[in-house]
Amino acid sequence: MRPREATGGPPRDPVGTLVGFARTLRAAGVSATPDRVHAWLGALGHLDVRNPRDVYHSGRLTLCSGPDDLVRYDRCFAAYFSGFTPPPPRPAPPPVRMPRLVSVPDVVEGDPSGGEHRPAAASPAEVLRFRDVSRLREAERAEVRRLITLLDTDPPQRRSRRLRPAPQGRLDPYRTIREMLRRGGEPSRLLRRRPRRRPRRTVLIVDVSGSMAPYADALLRFAHAVVRARPRHAEAFSTGTRLTRLTRELRIRDADGAMTAAAAAIPDWSGGTRLGEELKEFLDMWGQRGMARGAIVVICSDGWERGDATLLGEQMRRLSRLAHSVVWANPHKAQPGYRPLTAGMRAALPYVDAFVAGHSLAALEELARVIGGDRRA
Amino acid sequence: MTHSSIPLPADVASPGDLSGLLGRHDYLADEALSTAAFLALRMRRPLFLEGEAGVGKTELAKALARILDVPLIRLQCYEGIDSAQALYDWDFPRQLLHLRAAEAAGVTDVSTLESELYDRRFLVARPLLRALETSVEDRPAVLLVDEIDRADDEFEAFLLEVLSDFTISIPELGTITAATPPLVVVTSNRTREVHDALKRRCLYHWLEHPGFDREVAILRRRLPAVTERLARDVAGATQRLRGDSYDLLKPPGVAESLDWAEALAALGARRLDPDLAAATLGAVLKYREDQARVLDAGLAALLNGSGAAAGG
C-alpha cells in the first residue's frame, strides 16, 4: 500500500493521480462524487500528500459513506497505488429474466381458451384476481403485474411521541399561552394536542430460491408497490443463499425499471434456501439495530429449509420479540389440502402472527390488508 | 487544567500531535481516528462517526471538548425531535409576565412593548443555537449530535440546513450566524441509513472495536485501580467474546469491558477467574441468551489463553 509518489523519482502531478484514483473508486461502486474528491484534495492540503498513510486515511474519510464503501476503498487503494489494475467491480449480473415494458393487451377478452373453465358471468379481471400467478400465460401475467403495481398498500400506523394540535386531548400550554399573548394576555380558550400518527415501518423479506421461482416476480412486484407507497418507512430484502437488501432498487418508481435493478442486484436467483441463516444475518445486521423493532415484518417463503430447522425457529423467536407483528406469506398455502408440514414452516409458525397465501392477486390484496390492517395501532 | 497551557488546534500540526493530546486527555485514538479528528478541526467539517454501540463515539466528542477546553454541547436525538427542542423556543410564561407587568406599570406604547416582548432574553436557546452563539474565534464550541439515526428524516434535512451555513434565522429576531463554525461530531449506531446528502457534508469514519493492546491501554488509562493483569484478562476475554466462535447477539463494546473491569476491581479482583467472571457476567453481557451461550461453552474456555491473544 505505498503510493507511487512516496517512492521518490520524478515528481508527478498529485492531483491527476488522485482524481484517477477517484475514478477507479467510482468504477468499483463507491460514489466518490466530485464534491467529495474536492473535499479530499482540501483535506490533503492539511496533511502530507507524499505520506501514503495520510493519503489513505484522508481518502477514506472523505470519499466513503458506509462500511460497504470501506471494503471497496481498501481494495482499490491497494490495487491503484501498487500499480495493478483493480479487478472488475462486480461479477456480471445474472441473466435478467425480467419482462420488458409491454403494452397491456386486452388480456383475457380475446383469448377465451385459458385452459380453465370460467363462469361466464364473471368479469375477466375478476377471474384473473383469483388465478394462481404461477399458472398464468404471458398476456395475463402482464395484466396481473399491472394490477399489482396499482395495489392499494396503505401504510400501517403507529402513535408517535410527537404531539399535534387536535380538538380534543391533552392541554397544549404553549399554544394556549401564545394565543393569550396574541390577545394581550387575556385568558381565552384552551387549546389541546394529542399524539401524531406515523407510518409503521414495514420490512419485506422475499424468498427467491428455486422452489419460489414461479412466485418471486409477483412477490417482488408486491414489495415494490409497498416500498414505493412509503419509501422512507419500508425495507425490502431478498433471500435464498444470500441476503440482499433491495430497498434502494425498489425505490425506483417505474415497476419494470425497479424489477430490472433488483434482478441485477440479486446474486442467488433461483438457488437454494438457507432461510435460518439468512434470517439470522438480517437480524444481526439490520433487525436488532432497529429496523425490525416495532415493525411489521413480512416473510414471503415456502419455508422449505434444507437441513435443520432449529436455527430458523430460534431466529423466528428472536424476530417475534423485536417486531410489532410477523406475517408469513406462503403461496403453497392456497393449494387444496395444504398442511404446514415442511420442517421450516413448522418451526416458524408458532412465532407468526398472520399466515396468508399470497399466490394470486386477490391473495396479495389480502396480504396488503393484513399489513395495513391495524389502523388504530 | 490550566487554561493557558491548553494548545489550540492551530498548534496541532499533525494527526500524530492530536493523537498525543487526546491520549493526555484519556482518549486513546488510533491513526485513522486521530486523522479524522485532525481534519475535522482543520477543515471545519463535521465528523460523522458510525460504529457499534459502545466503541467510544460519544467519548471522542467529550475528549475533543476537553482538549479545546470548551463546554460540550450535546443534542441527543430521538424519534419526534423537532426544531423547538433543537434550536430555540420562546419563553411564553416569562413573556406573559412581562406583558402583565408592563400593563400594571401603565405602558401603553404598543410597538415598544412588542419589540421588548421578542427580545433575546425571552429566547430559550436549545443546543444548536447555543452552539452557534458560544462558538467564537479560536474557541469553537464542540457540538455533539448524538444518535442521529434515531431522529426522523425530516429532522435530518433540517440539520443539514443548519450544518451547511451555520446560520439560524429567527423570524422575530433576525439571523444568528456563528462567528466561527463549531466543531460538530455526529454519531450514528446505524439503526437506519442516514441520508447521503448529510454524509456528504461530513468526514465519514467507521469506528471499530479496539485491538487487544489498545483495549488493555484504555482499561489501564481509564481505570487506575485495575491491575495490569486484570486489564489483560478482561481485554482478552472481551476480544474472544467479540469473535465469531461465540456469535453473540450483542458483542461487548469498550463501554462494556470498562464496566466489567470496574466491577471486578470493585470486588477487589487482581485477576479474572471463572467464579469472578460468573458473578460479574451481567456487566459485560446484557442478553440472557448471550450469557447462556457463554456459560454453556464454559467460563474456563473464555478465560483460557488470556496471554495468547496478546499478539492480536
The percentage of residues in β strands of chain A lies in 5-15%
Shape of chain B: elongated
Helical run tally of chain B: 15
The CATH H-level superfamily of the largest domain in chain B is P-loop containing nucleotide triphosphate hydrolases
Helix content of chain A: 40-55%
Spatial separation of the terminal alpha carbons of chain A: 55 Å
Task: Indicate the radius of gyration of chain B in whole angstroms.
Answer: 24 Å
Q: How do you describe this structure in short?
A:
The complex is a heterodimer of chains A (377) and B (312). Chain A has 377 residues and is of the alpha/beta class.
Characterization of the model:
- The complex is a heterodimer of chains A (377) and B (312).
- By secondary structure, chain A is an alpha/beta fold.
- Chain A has 3 domains: 4-81; 162-198, no CATH class; 202-372, 3-Layer(aba) Sandwich (Rossmann fold).
- Helices cover 43% and strands 12% of the residues of chain A.
- Chain A contains 14 helices and 9 strands.
- Chain A has helices at residues 14-27, 34-45, 52-63, 67-81, 124-130, 138-149, 173-182, 213-229, 247-250, 255-265, 275-291, 310-322, 343-348, 361-372; strands spanning 157-166, 170-171, 192-199, 202-207, 234-239, 244-245, 296-300, 325-329, 354-356.
- In chain A, the strands form 2 sheets. A 6-stranded mixed beta sheet of chain A has the order 6-5-4-7-8-9, sandwiched between helices. Chain A has a 3-stranded antiparallel beta sheet with strand order 1-3-2.
- In chain A, helix 2 runs antiparallel to helix 3 (52-63) and helix 6 (138-149) packs parallel to helix 8.
- The termini of chain A are far apart.
- Chain B has 312 residues and is of the alpha/beta class.
- Chain B has 3 domains: 9-80 and 139-169 and 182-207, Rossmann fold (3-Layer(aba) Sandwich), CATH 3.40.50; 88-121, no CATH class; 212-304.
- Chain B has helices at 15-24, 31-43, 57-68, 83-86, 92-104, 110-117, 127-134, 153-165, 196-200, 212-222, 228-242, 254-266, 274-280, 288-297, 299-303, and strands at residues 47-51, 72-76, 88-90, 123-125, 142-146, 167-170, 174-177, 183-188, 203-207.
- Chain B has a 5-stranded parallel beta sheet with strand order 2-5-8-1-9, with helices on both faces.
- The longest helix of chain B has 15 residues, at 228-242.
- Mean pLDDT of chain B is 86; it is low at 1-7 and 306-312.
- The interface between A and B is large, with 43 and 42 residues.
